[in-house]
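Protocol step 4 of 5: obtain the predicted structure for the target chain.
Materials: sequence only (see below). No template structures provided, no constraints applied. The aim of this step is simply to have a reference model before the mutagenesis design in step 5. Sequence pasted as it appears in the construct record:
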Amino acid sequence: MNKLRVTIFNENHHDRFNEKAKATYPNGMHSAIKEALDADGRFETTVALQDMPSHGLTDEVLENTDVLFWWGHVLHGEVDDAIVAKVCDRVLQGMGLVVLHSGHFSKVFKKLMGTTCNLKWRESGDLERIWTVKPSHPIAAGLPEYFELPHEETYGEHFDIPDPDEVVFASWFSGGELFRSGCCFERGNGKIFYFRPGHETFPTFYDENVRKVLVNAAIWAGAQGGVRQFYGHWLSDNYNK
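Step 4 output (structure tokens):
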């Protein structure tokens, strides 16, 4: 069986310049995510970092990516609009996209959602309880009714996104906030999954349940869609071929 080709994009700023983040992810958050996927055995993984030429997302890389993971935070505005357009086009063509944590404010996610993607937040280190609200969904496979992260950055509603096609996970925080933390969308032939946890100073991407979500999300988002659609002027004779 051919392996799914996964590219992990990481802004890679906090990983290098924030002491707490460096201590938590000494090899970068992308390495922790890659480790989780590599351990599963069904993926061929590569890494793209923002300071690489073309942010590591060259035409060749994008054409050979079945699923793109995206983590960004403070450098969203420095992502090249031309690269954003290419990523979004690839999603519409069928590439899967998994957007993590503060990637909700990335140019790519906002362009595909068509809204501000804004929300409430607190860097509080609250406990996060993540409830599986759609247990039949493939991304929830093997997950318990809920699992907890002892410390995470708090997000709260309202989350300014279009109504998701499906909500797989919802979070409650010890400060009282609620949040739609696992949201599925389809755009063109592509599948998108937004997953809320993943603050840079907490060891979230080492958590076994979180890693299970990452693996399941990659499998779901990488599943090939139906027939590639063609648009524009269409001669009726084509239907007889």
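Step 4 remarks: The radius of gyration is 18 Å. The chain has a mean pLDDT of 94.
Proceed to step 5.
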